[in-house]
# Entry
Amino acid sequence: MPTPLKVVAGKGTRIRLADGRSLLDCISSWWVNLYGHGHPRIAEAIHAQAQELEHVIFAGFTHEPAERVAESLTRLLPGRLSRVFFSDDGSTAVEVALKMAYQYWVNRGEKRPTFIGFEGGYHGDTVGAMSVGAPSTFSGMFSDLLFEVEHLPFPETWIGDEGVAEREDAVLQALEARLAASDRPVAGIIIEPLVQGAGGMRMCREEFLQGLRRVSEQAGTLLIFDEVMTGFGRTGERFACERAGVEPDLICLAKGLTGGFLPMAVTVASSDIYDAFVSADPEKTFWHGHSYTANPIGCAAALASFELLAESESAFRGMEQHHREFLGRLDPAITERPRVTGTIVAFEIRTDGTGGYFDRVGDELKKRTIQKGLLLRPLGNTVYLMPPYCLTDDERSEMYDGVAELVREVTGG
Ligand code: PLP
# Structure
C-alpha cells in the first residue's frame, strides 16, 4: 500500500503536510468543504456550543440548535420539503430516504419493494445505498446482499453534445413504460440531480429532471433527490432542485451541511410523506435513529454554515463562467467531454486505455498532482475541479494553470 500523506493543518484553500509542503485544495476535500479550511466563524460556533450543550438524546427531547437548523433549511428549500429528519452522513441520509419511501407506501396499505436508480449512480457504502447505486467494483463483492433495484441509463451530456434530447426522451419513455407495469410497483426513483459525483462527474440537463418529475408524478411514485454532493451552492444555485425548478418528494443532504467541519446529514420530506406516519399505531412509526442524531455541535456548525452560504452567493454563482473559460483553453486533441455545472467542472483525458475509474492515466495524474502542489483526486481519466468558494483570483489561476500543465504532461500533448 502507498503510504498516505500526513496532513497537519488546513487554512482557507490550503492544507499543510507534515513534511512542510502545502497543497491547494481543488476538490474541497471529498467535496465537503465550502468556505475554506478552519473557517473562524464555524470554529467559533462549535467552540461556543460545546461549552453550552455538547450532546443529548434526541428521542423525546429537542434543543434550540436542531430546531433552528430545521427552520432554516425548510426556508431555504422549495415549498413542499418541510419535514426534517437528522442522521449522520450521506449514506445514512440515503438509507433514511429509502426506508421512509418504502414505509410511506406500507403505511398507506401498499407493498412496493422496488426502487429505480441510474447507471453510474453512487449513493454511499451502506447496504441500502449500495443497492440503489449502480453495480460497481465498490459494491460487487456484496451483490448477494443487495435488494432489487432497476437501473436506467443516465442521459449524460457535455458541451457540444447534440444528441442529448433524444437520449433523454428514450429514458423517459422507458421509465413511463416501466412505471405502467402494475404488477411490480415502484416505491421511488432516486437520482443525483444534475451531477453524478463518484460515477465520474457526469452531468445531465435540467430538462431531464423536469421530465422525471412529470413522469413520476403521473405514475404516482416518489422522487428522491440525493443532493449529498450537489447541495449548498455546488451547482451554482443553492440546490440542484432549485436550479432545475423541480420539487422532489425527498431530498438527502450531508457533506457541505456543516461547511465540511463535522459529519451530519438530513433527509427532508414533503408534508404529504410526514402525514402518512402520524398515527397512534406504533406499526406506523418510523423506527430509525442514531446515537448522534441532531448533535448540537454539528447543528451549531450548520447554522454558521448557512450564514456563510448567504454571504457566498456571488462566489458560487460566478464560478461557472470562470470554469467555462478554462475549458476553452483545453486542447480537444487530448481531452474530451468538457462539462460544467456551477462550481463543478470536468473533462476526460483521451487515453488508449479503457477509460473509466481504473484507467492507468489516473495513477499517473495522482502522482503528479502532489508534485505540483495541488490536491486533486481524478476518477480514472476524468479530471474534475470543485474548489471551496473562498478561492481567490490568484489561486484560481494557479489551479487552472496547474491542471492544464498536468494534462499536457501526462498526454505528451
Ligand atoms: N450520495 C452522494 C451523491 C455522494 O456523493 C456520497 C459520497 O460521496 C454519498 C451519498 C455518501 O456520503 P457519505 O460518504 O457521507 O456517506
Summary: The first strand starts at residue 7 and ends at 11. The longest helix spans residues 393-411. The CA atoms of residues 277 and 284 lie 5 Å apart.
